[in-house]
Amino acid sequence: MLNRSKFVLALLTIAGLSAMISAQENETQKAFAGTWEGKFKGAVFCVLSLQAGEKISGTLSPGTITVNDDGDITDAQPSDPEPAGKELPILNPKIEDRKLSFDWKDTDDDTSKFELKITGEGEAELRLISAGDHIKPIILRRR
Q1: Residues above pLDDT 90, as percent of the chain
Q2: Closest of 35, 67, 65 to residue 52, by C-alpha
Q3: Of 31, 68, 120, 74, which is closest to residue 140 (Cα–Cα)?
């Protein structure tokens, strides 16, 4: 049976570990937070806006792309005349192994899965994760 002082020490240790884990999660979220843009021929066609908080959240406006057989983008247009296009919320965000995975549901009820991996200072790769898709990652830069 634990005496009172050992019990209090155990609670303080657990609280300290929880605070440390929460601080680490918050720092990881901050690494992803911000507005990320994908450009094709100098024009913005994709905008990913992320906010750190209790849980990471944000919106994605991916635009429309055309790719060749090798998965390279050959044309890209914003989904609307504005670079931000239709901003719809990201769903089910999860950070694991320095990657942010999330779902995104277009207005036509199709759900797409994405993965964002930070590759350098202010640079990341956005990858569409779907069976059969051969699109190469889209390079995003933090605005």
Answers
A1: 51
A2: 35
A3: 120
Residue 17 or 117, more confident: 117
Q: Give the global pTM.
A: 0.77
**Where is 66: in which H helix or E strand?**
strand 64-67
Instruction: Specify the 3-state DSSP secondary structure of 129.
Output: strand
CA nearest neighbour of 64 among 103, 112, 116? 112
* Tokens linked to 20: 């440390």
Residues 72/136, Cβ–Cβ less than 8 Å = yes
Amino acid at 22: S
Fold of 4-142: Lipocalin (2.40.128)
Q: How far is it, in rounded angstroms, from Cα 121 to Cα 119? A: 7
Mean pLDDT across the chain: 81
Residues 34 and 142: beta-carbon distance below 8 Å: yes
**Burial class of residue 77, CB neighbours in 10 A (0-12, 13-18, 19+):** middle
